Amino acid sequence: MYSEDALVRKIRRRFSAAGAEVGIGDDAAVVDSPDGFRAVLCSDLLVENTHFERRTHPSDAVGFKSIAANVSDIGAMGAVPARCLISVAVPADLDESWIDGFLDGAAEACRVFEVAVVGGDSSSSERIFVDVAMMGHVEPGRAVRRNGARVGDGIYVTGCLGAAALGLTRLESGSRTDPAIRRQLYPEPRHRLGRRIAPRATAMIDVSDGLSIDLGHIVTESGVSARIERESIPCHPGAGIEMALHGGEDYELLVTAADLPSEVDGVSVARIGEIIAGDSNRIVLVGESDEVILEPLGWRHFRSGARRASA
Amino acid sequence: MYSEDALVRKIRRRFSAAGAEVGIGDDAAVVDSPDGFRAVLCSDLLVENTHFERRTHPSDAVGFKSIAANVSDIGAMGAVPARCLISVAVPADLDESWIDGFLDGAAEACRVFEVAVVGGDSSSSERIFVDVAMMGHVEPGRAVRRNGARVGDGIYVTGCLGAAALGLTRLESGSRTDPAIRRQLYPEPRHRLGRRIAPRATAMIDVSDGLSIDLGHIVTESGVSARIERESIPCHPGAGIEMALHGGEDYELLVTAADLPSEVDGVSVARIGEIIAGDSNRIVLVGESDEVILEPLGWRHFRSGARRASA
Q: Engineering a disulfide at B272: which of A42, B23, B232, B243 sits with its beta carbon 3.0 to 4.6 angstroms away?
């Protein structure tokens, strides 16, 4: 039986909480907040059999993704990620190697994204459950929200979409070698790019739930509508337009701005459409010979489709 | 089927995130951090069938406790709780009244403890799972840790112990009227008292896992041992010494200090023993005619005992 005490000791050994006045192992962590900055806070859940399955997702990928998803959210505010709390509940009979892998993945993500683990909580549960809460910082008034898109703004996407969804279908069909699998298991958020783009952005969000849902958040919050061109959407090689529109988990940035260059820091930035007036908050998807209203299906729809296809 | 979107809308309506530059509904929240203070961070998990059962714990109690447990941790640092993120995963077929009750309880706790909900995450899962991450603040260098207890310090406990454990046994035996039940369901952390006591404390922790475990943390972290007197331990009326020693969830404060008054802000403060030398980090429990080593059994042991008793 895997004890919580052993888990806490293991987490504590792994994450030294560099720079914290009080780190892991007390009632709470105590950290600096940079003078003149605002604290930026978010959290992200990963639930077994909802977000991942033990069969398809190695434990280090779960650890990596739990950090990466939050880094992506902080980056999509134009902010800098800094510290996090990891809460993890696992079955008492879970193999210790799962925990070790999970911590390996989380530690690797913290290293790559320059984030420190300063605390958290642990518990037993019937299914694996991970919640990471992250704190970052941003200059006052400089956070980029979802509600600032203006009529006439261009709509931009960094990198390409559909890779994570393609990777998931590959995983579920038993493959372990397709390059898209890496995008599903070890996503690399665009937080540094977000920080660069932020001064020019009127609205920004990360593509975590899928373009159809995430652009939906921008138009709803901003009180506008959108018109995007199917041919302009950058699809990962091998991923179809459905994966790009609804797949999610790509952790690319979706940005509205008067203008953005076609490349920032070596990453392509594609203009996929523009913000239009309309308080119906619709997304019009324009094809070569047709126009349809894009429904916000997102990754849940897509994933259940993938499951059916692989069953 | 209860959708996550509906849950997020409900949470957002309920918690206005007063004072946050960016509140619920964006990638992350943006909040002030007071100049010259340090941020204090913690999180606390509540897992169905580990920490609570739907049969015995009404949903508003789960919501209340998810906030209270974190307020208690922040208070045990001598810090002031301020803002939190609520992550909640629930079964898709969960009755909406459970969610409403949960949010009622969380909102009531936020009102009473003066904490604002600024964000979080939601998901579906097979069992109910709640993780609250909280941020507070404290003056630099003023946080009271677990590792400062010195040989000769007195060991003090606020209020009385065993009430939450007694309440649990009452609940599990079908009672709904015993006054101790309120201490189990709607605990009132001593965060304001912790702030008052902090300047005189060498170490401080909240009694969440049980006196035997929590005092164990202090002696281990401080590199000392402890000697406590059975007769001095303040037991809630009706709660036996076992409940007081191991029950946990009382959210009282356990403090080491050269000296503390017997009452602070109307709350009794009992001296139950003293810190002694000894790197074995033992706790000696002194009775009228015997001395035993107190094993760190804590609430898990106690609770499974209570379950057996009520089965």
A: B232
